[in-house]
Design a protein that fits this description.
Length: 287
């Protein structure tokens, strides 16, 4: 019943699911350079946030420390997510967000000085075990988990949890709209450091490709506004909801009706992935 009190987290889940699938489509068929895609994806999100934030009024933060940290983890998390997106199937990447719940619980316990219970340790072990299984392909071997894509995804989870902690603190310090805008704006400033990795590709990008990059940004902007406000109520509960693999369901539908667009695996592989994801989600929700 607690999930019913977080409608904005559910909206963020929907938007992030659509954003992930749209991002995967763009990365696979349109933009070969992940650094370029990441920069403009976030730039378009920032542009979409701007009129909404300015409409509600915006001022300089009275306290900068927490929002600067939030922006740093925002930029790092987005970069690692896009790099992982280029390497992993959506049906593998989406369930790995259950690790985000694990990290949120661990960080929450550390921050308040509490010890995890035996049940929580068992649930964390279950999530890790089935995290190995969820990455299997047609060879049905768990060693497919151990690759750079998975490592990047797990680093992304860590940075997103840290971002959530500092977003919550920033909202308490300076208010929701200021925290939303300045974390995204300063995050884009951090992303300017990646300019050398994609500046040579800019002359080759067409207006159509810019338009395609705008699509996931639109969903991401709505998701960002929703999730930041939800974090102000509860970091752990919001993290649990937005970690549900909605994009995994969309990816499976693509595999049935348009396999050439996204991904295609046997039903056996998807059965293993969905069962593993269900176990991970159940364990995460009980942490």
């Amino acid at each position: 019943m607690m999930f019913l009190v977080q409608p904005l987290a559910w909206l963020a889940l929907l938007m992030y699911g659509l954003e992930g699938v749209a991002g995967k489509l763009v990365s696979k068929h349109s933009i070969p350079n992940p650094w370029l895609f990441n920069f403009f994806w976030n730039l378009f999100i920032l542009a979409l946030l701007a009129p909404v934030v300015w409409w509600h009024g915006l001022s300089l933060p009275s306290s900068w420390a927490n929002v600067i940290w939030a922006s740093f983890f925002y930029a790092g998390g987005s970069a690692f997510y896009v790099l992982a997106l280029y390497r992993l199937d959506i049906s593998v990447l989406a369930p790995l967000f259950s690790f985000r719940t694990v990290l949120a619980v661990v960080f929450g316990a550390v921050l308040v000085g509490e010890l995890l219970t035996t049940q929580q340790y068992i649930l964390i072990a279950v999530i890790f075990l089935f995290g190995l299984v969820v990455s299997v392909d047609e060879r049905l071997v768990v060693k497919s988990f151990f690759n750079w894509g998975t490592a990047l995804a797990l680093l992304d989870m860590l940075l997103l949890v840290l971002m959530a902690v500092f977003i919550k603190k920033s909202v308490a310090d300076i208010g929701y709209w200021e925290a939303t805008w300045w974390s995204a704006f300063l995050g884009q400033v951090w992303l300017l450091l990646t300019w050398p990795f994609f500046k040579a590709d800019l002359p080759q990008i067409s207006l159509k490709q810019y338009g395609l990059m705008f699509a996931p940004a639109l969903a991401g902007a709505v998701g960002t506004m929703a999730v930041n406000q939800a974090y102000a109520s509860s970091v752990s509960l919001t993290s649990a909801i937005v970690s549900l693999p909605f994009s995994m369901v969309i990816a499976f539908l693509f595999s049935v009706f348009a396999p050439e667009l996204l991904e295609k695996h046997t039903l056996k592989v998807y059965a293993v992935r969905f069962v593993s994801a269900a176990v991970m989600i159940t364990a995460a929700l009980n942490l």
